[in-house]
Amino acid sequence: MSNSRPLVAVSAESVLDEIVRIAAAAGCELDCVPDLIAARTRWTRAPLVLVDAAMLSDDDAGQLPKRGGVVLVTDQPLDVVSWEAAYAAGVERVLSLPDAESELVDLLADVAEEPAAGKGTVLGVIGGRGGAGASVFAASVAIAHADEGGDALLVDFDALSGGIDLVLGAEQAAGLRWPDVTVRSGRVSMSALRDALPDVAGGDGRLVVLSCGRSGDGPAPEAAAAVIEAGVRSGYTVVCDLPRELGPAGWQVVDLADLIAVIVPAEVRASASAYRLVERLRHRARRVGLVVRGPSPDALPADAVADVIGGELLTVMRAEPRLASALERGEFRLRRGGPLAGGATDVLAALHDDAKVAA
Ligand SMILES: Nc1ncnc2c1ncn2[C@@H]1O[C@H](COP(=O)(O)OP(=O)(O)O)[C@@H](O)[C@H]1O
Ligand SMILES: [Mg+2]
Q1: For the domain that residue 26 is a member of, what is the CATH number?
Q2: Does residue 1 lie within any of the structural domains?
């Protein structure tokens, strides 16, 4: 039994034969079960579930736990009863063969490409006050992870920020931005994202960026979830730059994140504002931590700031020298040994250590 293979609960032989043939072409091994009783134990953990209408006509179909990524495969038009059963079982997509063969190949190839070793992690970054340095910090964490040889996916959720690609000096980089990225099915493949998005060369690792555009909206919550889940399935560290006013997509990130890092300049007013934000986040986020940064006009100690706000102190950073002018010229680089690089490394350690404990 394997949790990394798609679960196939299909009783029509013609459909099963086609799935087996297509999976072989996609280089994907399957976990085939003869009935829903056998499917039950694997249902929740499989990366993808393929069913057919005959299987869903079973009385037990309504008892299956709800999960995403359930796909009904058919080689015949579905009748009303089958559609109702599909709806009741939480099927999120119906693929009609032979027309949808290439979509099925993509889905299976996507599962096959995912590394067996470990899932990715999700970090949300949010400013304790306006202009706190959240976008710069989010970019720094993603760069630091790629510099260490990891794969990073940096996703911008602040539609009014002008685009995080500007922070990276990558506004000319070819590839899609949020308004042009549409997610139809609730599931998107990381290989398709990687091909479509700007890839900003890091060290040994990869840094893929999904920025907001200069105009247009940010993502819908479903698209946000699909992109984050694609990154997680493929072992990426997904870094999400959040706006302070969290809309539906922002709250979706909070729900999916392993850690939310709140960036707080060491100032009284920033602390007061971060306090309110952390209060709102705490009841929904898995873990909230603070990144306290200089300059501190009145030399406020970082632990005093963390005490006032009431959050876990992840790291303390001095102000990054010459940052404003580097950003202005589009020449921001993460300076080795600098305060931002140190802060980013600390937060990555907090994120990944925690994920190891949870695994
Ligand atoms: N680590 C830092 N050290 C010093 N100045 C910073 C730092 N981070 C951000 N800044 C300053 O704050 C400005 C706003 O940063 P940004 O990341 O866009 O904030 P936010 O996303 O929270 O609105 C930057 O242009 C820069 O001048
Ligand atoms: Mg920002």
Answers
A1: 3.40.50.2300
A2: no
What one-character-per-residue DSSP string does 303-353 give? HHHHHHHT-EEEEEEPPPTTHHHHHHTT-----TTSHHHHHHHHHHHHHHH
Q: What is the pLDDT of residues 63-85, one digit of tens each?
A: 888 888 899 999 999 999 999 99
C-alpha span between 328 and 166 (Å, rounded): 9
Q: Which ligand 1 atom minimizes the distance to the CA of 132?
A: 22
Residue 25's domain comprises: 7-113
Q: What is the pTM of this model?
A: 0.77
Strands 237-241 and 151-156: parallel
Please give the number of the atom of ligand 1 that sits closest to the Cα of 327.
Answer: 25
Same domain, 150 and 190: yes
Residues 68 and 168 placed together within one structural domain of the fold: no
| Nearest atom of ligand 1 to the alpha carbon of 126 | 22
How far apart are alpha carbons 253 and 155 in whole angstroms?
Answer: 10
Own/partner contacts of 19-23, CB < 8 Å, gap of 24 or more, are: 19/50, 19/73, 19/104, 22/101, 22/104, 22/105, 22/108, 23/108
Q: How far apart are CA 7 and CA 10, in angstroms?
A: 9
Three-state secondary-structure class, residue 51: strand
Q: Which ligand is nearest to the CA of 263?
A: 1
Closest Cα to atom 6 of ligand 1: 133
Query: For 174-206, how does the pLDDT look when each residue is reduced to its tens digit (9 = 90+)?
Result: 999 998 998 765 678 787 788 899 998 766 789
Residues in Cβ contact with 231 at an 8 Å cutoff, skipping those fewer than 6 apart: 120, 122, 153, 155, 190, 193, 237, 238
354 part of a folded domain: yes
Same domain, 109 and 125: no
Alpha helices, H only, the chain: 13-26, 36-43, 53-56, 80-88, 101-113, 134-147, 190-196, 221-233, 248-256, 268-282, 302-309, 323-328, 339-358
Q: Which helix (H) or strand (E) holds 154?
A: strand 151-156
Share in percent of the chain as helix, strand, coil (round to 5): 40, 15, 40
Ligand nearest to the CA of 132: 1
